[in-house]
Amino acid sequence: MLIRKPADIRPSEITSESNYLNRRDFMRAGAIAGGTLLTPISMSAMIPVSQGAALGNVGNSAFSTGEAPNSFEDISTYNNFYEFGLDKDDPAANAKNFKTRPWTIEVEGHANKTGVYDLDDFLRPFDLEERIYRMRCVEAWSMVIPWVGISLAEVIKYFEPTSKAKYVAFETLNDPQQMPGVRRRVLDWPYREGLTIAEATNPLPILAVGIYGKVIPNQNGAPIRLVVPWKYGFKGIKSIVKIRFTSTRPKTSWNMSAPREYGFYANVNPEVNHPRWSQARERRIGAGIFARKQKTLMFNGYGEQVAHLYENLNLRRNF
Ligand code: MTE
Question: Which domain covers residue 172, as residue numbers?
């Protein structure tokens, strides 16, 4: 399968040069006006609505792995998104008509800037980057995914959390009309996740809006989802509608559902097994049924960037 990466796509294929210049002028004007952006004119071209549309002005990241990414097919057909069903192929089938516009994100809690933001307004201050990350699911399989997103650390800084903000909590949309899975109480909806403020301001996590340079498929968490590459995949909450700065540790869905199996931290750790299976090895999706399982790496191989966050923590107890 031949897939063009963003670097191969000429900007003219995505947006006209004048549109691009408009955006720059617009952003400069916004900066002059003290950061208060008033009209969403040109930027809407940058985050297209339709599934599969190309994303413009995507920078590269030094954090990208050199490992070969999984195919778009693997990434968009083997999913966990319980709001759309429990089987791996359910989300692709059941999220086809999921409406991702209009979309708002509510920012609340201990921060100087809070409010309800239309998605385009929420994204506007930030730059898009491609981050090719190794992803490790708690179910002992892994993939390499070329995400496109914005730095979570930049987002956190932008909203100016106060000294009371020790954690960041996230919530997924909870819409029984559109999400057949939430009509059953397999989890206590809405899906919830959280990070410590130190984790959330580490340079690695992103809020992803794309994959392979294109608008993120609904089944992968459109229009915006969290990606934390050193943690098990369930921390990567999809289709986010709420971000809350809290002083106490927020409740998280899998921890609420089975606290002895899924901890708050959920750092990838080959030495701490899930009570029902080993975490020492993993199956790389797409490698073929005869491929050997590969060794799982501590912090999924991102220890250099994140090990310092847990220096004084017993990782066996705080799994
Ligand atoms: N977010 C929501 N809202 N609902 C979910 O069921 N599943 C999680 C996570 N985010 C889930 C979710 C799990 S278990 C995994 S492994 C990843 O999404 C899978 O992301 P992917 O389908 O894009 O690979």
Answer: 52-257
